[in-house]
Structure formats: C-alpha cells, structure tokens
C-alpha cells in the first residue's frame, strides 16, 4: 500500500498519515487489461477507493496509451499519424499530450521550488 491518507477531503484522515485506517474490501478488474485492482474502505468516513485513486492517470480509460503517445511524440510523429497507427481519435492524442504536458510542468515547478533547478523569471509578451 503506497498511500497513507484518505482521499476524501472531508475526512479527518485526509491530512493525517496513518496506515491502520483502511480495511481491504475486495477488488475490481479494469476494462483495459482485466487486472485485479484492490479496493479499500476508510474506517473513519466509510468512503471506498482503490489503489488507482492515487495515480496520475486516475479515471483514464486507456492509460496504456500514455507511454505510447510519449514515445511517438518524442520521435517527431504528427498527431494525425499517431491516431491512425494507434487506431484512436486525434482528440485522444491531444488529451494525452495535454496530460503529459501538465505532469512535466508540475515536475518542473517542483524542481524550481526545491532549489534543484536554478532559473530566473523571464517576462514575455504573454505575461
């Protein structure tokens, strides 16, 4: 179990880190790969959640495409060609790109805040 807090914002264990506040309550199988995903229940608020709740790709219907789209983008392939090769709509490709861009932006900001990356503010015409 990689998580130690309740995802429910109203629960008092949303900010407190405890391992014992959850009970395992079965599992469900994902539609995209039929793998069992364990489900848990918070003892305090009674809300159910799964281990996938804490993933960045939570609620993605095709999370396996994230890596594939990244690989194709890195090789310079167009969105239209990716959609044809992966047999999905171009809108899915665009959404995956925006999802990955947000992850990279958060990682970049985290590195700046921790001092791991030194940079100065540049005001452009769009600020």
Attribute tags:
single chain, alpha+beta, 3 strands, 33% helix, three-stranded antiparallel β-sheet
* Spatial strand arrangement across the major sheet: 1-2-3
| Helix fraction bin | 25-40%
User: What characteristic shape results from the CA principal axes?
Assistant: flat
| Uncertain regions spanning at least 5 consecutive residues | none
Q: What fraction of the residues are assigned to beta strands by DSSP?
A: 5-15%
Alpha-carbon distance between the termini?
A: 42 Å
Explain what the structure shows.
With 127 residues, this protein is an alpha+beta fold. The chain contains three helices and three strands, in the order βββααα. Among the domains are: 12-54, no CATH class; 65-107, no CATH class. A three-stranded antiparallel beta sheet has the order 1-2-3, with no helix packed on it.
């Amino acid at each position: 179990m990689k998580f130690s807090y309740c995802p429910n914002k109203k629960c008092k264990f949303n900010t407190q880190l405890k391992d014992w506040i959850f009970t395992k309550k079965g599992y469900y199988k994902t539609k995209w790969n039929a793998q069992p995903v364990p489900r848990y229940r918070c003892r305090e608020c009674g809300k159910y959640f799964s281990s996938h709740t804490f993933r960045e790709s939570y609620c993605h219907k095709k999370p396996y495409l994230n890596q594939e789209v990244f690989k194709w983008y890195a090789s310079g392939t167009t969105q239209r060609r990716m959609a044809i090769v992966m047999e999905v709509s171009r809108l899915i490709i665009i959404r995956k790109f925006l999802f990955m861009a947000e992850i990279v932006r958060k990682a970049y900001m985290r590195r700046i805040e921790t001092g791991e990356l030194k940079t100065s503010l540049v005001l452009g015409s769009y600020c």
